[in-house]
Amino acid sequence: MSDREEEKFEEERARREQPWDEQEPPLWSDADEEEDQAYFEKKARARKRLKKILAVLLAAVLLANVLSFWPMLYNMQAIRFLSVSRELSRSDQVSGYKQAVAVVGSKGGKGTGFVVSSGGYIVTNYHVIEGKSSLFVSFPKGKSYPAEVVSSNPSADLALLRIDPGDAALHALPLNRAGSAQSGDSVYIIGNPLMFDRVANAGTIVGEMPIDSMDIPIIAIEAPIYKGNSGSPVINEQGEVVAVVFATASIERSGETMKVGLAIPIRYLLSDLDRLGVSLAQ
């Protein structure tokens, strides 16, 4: 092919082909743009619904986790001691003891105390009131009183509070001045364990024993003792307080490990009561 013929061929091909600078049509039209905007709005609404569903599911999971702790709190032992308390409370004697047992509380928690004088003196543990402010004492019918600490014995973990009962007639528990509590004696323990108030339970004196953290011997009791029982009176069959619960421990007995309640003999409080001239219940 001559040069002239080749030039004509190229010119003819150029006329047949689309120009290189012609713009390509858009990938979507205005109608497509409206459809795309609606698509994204629909997707945003779906995302909001999904967030709400996830929030509900998360709340359900959290609730399930909280509820899973209830069996730990209301376990069979708790059910058992509540059942025992209900049966014991049918007795007028035990029901009367409960009237003298109070909740000793503050913003930091609660413990147990009991009235020893109608003049408004209440015994509890020192660790229940240690470092606390704005103490209060409340009784079965819901009446609460501000309380002040009039005496404390940290080494024996005992404290004496006083309230002004006004015209209210307080029930008081007599104290066992002989300080006698023999191994095998049956006793009652009344306190405010866990989330409950004035729970009565029966126990048995194991005996007196020394512990490393205290300079005085303490009384071990085979009985259900829980958090909140600190300050509970240990009452003998004559209705006298022989000790004050302050802790629990595991001890070896007859080759077996057993959990026991620990209590301070009431005799370690008597000198303070006599010094203050407290008129005790008889």
Automatic annotation (TrEMBL):
Protein name: Serine protease
Pfam families for the chain: Trypsin_2
Keywords: Hydrolase, Membrane, Protease, Serine protease, Transmembrane, Transmembrane helix
GO biological process, one term: proteolysis
UniProt cross-references to SUPFAM superfamilies, sorted A to Z: Trypsin-like serine proteases
Gene Ontology MF terms in the entry: serine-type endopeptidase activity
UniProt feature, compositional bias: Acidic residues: 20-34
